[in-house]
Design a protein that fits this description.
This protein is mainly α. 41% of the residues lie in helices and 9% in strands.
Length: 399
Amino acid sequence: MHDHMSYCNRCMYPAVAVNLSVDDEGICSSCRVAEEFEKLTPEFWEKRRLRFEKTIEEIRKTNKSDYDCLIPVSGGKDSYFQTHMMAAEYGLKPLLVTYHGNNYLPEGDFNRDHMRHAFDADHLVFGPSVEVLKKLNRLCFRKMGDMNWHAHCGIMTYPIQIAIKFKIPLMMWGETAWDISGMYEPDDFVEFSARMRHEHALRGYEWYDMLNDPQEPLREKDLSWAKYPSDEEILSVGVRGLYIGNFFKWDPNQHSRMVQEKYGWKAADRPFERTYRTMSNLDDRYENGVHDLLKFIKFGYGRASDHASKDIRTGYMDRARGIEMVRKHDHVVSQDLYYWLNYVSMSEDEFWATADRFRDPRVWWIEDGQWWKDNIWGQASAYGSVHLPKESWQKYFRR
């Protein structure tokens, strides 16, 4: 049964966004947490800096590795900021570790490979075989509507495998990514955890869920990079994953300018079709494209909503401009869809028939053979033909 879709009164997020809640004033939990962060004073951040330095020193006392820390990096602006803080500001020796999902844009390739030179750092890059990646793209698209599960898994798993192998007790991550739903407040001091990895990044699936598929046969030894270490292995080294965003104010626009000027980091050469930002997600050609299109298909909002919401909360954009960006970008079927279909040898008909299975009935309804939803600017619109078999239409009829 369809009910009207509602949105936060301050940003672009719909109430159905994952893990989000909206209060009695119509403000979402992510905006409320952003309010708390914006109230923090320079004195507060100075205390956080001192706490960071004390924590780092305590971890270094037990470190028997030649590396002071491990930094999971993709080569994005956040990777450069993390490494800048650890290597340039604090003079530590990091090991940079990258999961390579075979999805990089040319600018992303340059940024990733340039890190070794910009920071004079050792850099370990790992990529699964391309045939395994193609199988995982197709399998996970059909299983959960997400062709990029392998990337979420690799990014969240391979670094901690390496931390154990090289006996490095400190992994330094970037922003506290949960600000997208406002799950945690400044004093929660969240750290990287197996639960966060499994429930959020991996959507509740593990490597063993990818075995025994008749269409996409994979062996256990194809997925060794996806296996999370045991508690005993983690405790034997004492690995902790800290988020640098807990200790230093996080401003992606400012960080982007700094790393461009100081290290020659490159933004996208061409604008994206599904968002206005050119500084985000260059490590994966689908993140601002077809992977994000699937979020729009599932939940009725896309990357332009994400980026505009963040920029509204940090004062870089007003809500009217945000709506303009959402209206222009969120619904676009980007050309990288056809690049991906060719990459995995899938027809466009199969893509749409599969994608339609994941539409949220709280967002979408069917009328005259078209998909409809309510928009943030106050009118409903049709967004293309229905590809589901007619026997599956019933739950999408408006009552």
